[in-house]
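Notes from hallway chat w/ T.B., transcribed later so I don't forget. T.B. wanted the structure written out for a chain they're using in a teaching module, and asked if we could keep both sequence and structure tokens in one place. Agreed to drop them here.
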Amino acid sequence: MVVIFLFWEEKMINKKVKKIIRKKLYEYPIYDRLINELNLEKDTTEGSDINSSIRSKYKISRKVESQAIKNINIDVRINEYEQWKKLIDNVLQEFRKNDKIKLKIIEYKFFGNVPEDIIADELYVSKTTVRTYINDIYFEIGILATFNNLINKSMFAS
């Protein structure tokens, strides 16, 4: 019974990892825009940044405190987008050098939203082969994301 549970749990984690990677790949073309929008969301106080406002007044008002917390949360999101962008840039660079088929599959499926059967026709491979390549791509990015702590065990705690 324990073995069945562990297998089921591993399968659920794999599905969640694939879902995260799929989302990141679809978002990749708009990462720069998302980062810029988040930077614009940051609050400033009277034309200066929050840190200088805190230093100059030697006290923290609730408004400044909430702005600082909001900015920290925005910085965390920006950092996450930048890390994913860098990781995917590196993967694309590697595929550009060593695996043009995987590169084309990423471009068609995730950047062009082209259906798998059309990708298969375009690349002269079967639809099953396209799916195999997609799973390989998820696996490779998943390993790199885990290594860079973009995906970790705490994301899957029940």
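Follow-up for T.B.: The longest helix spans residues 62-98. Might be a good example for the class.
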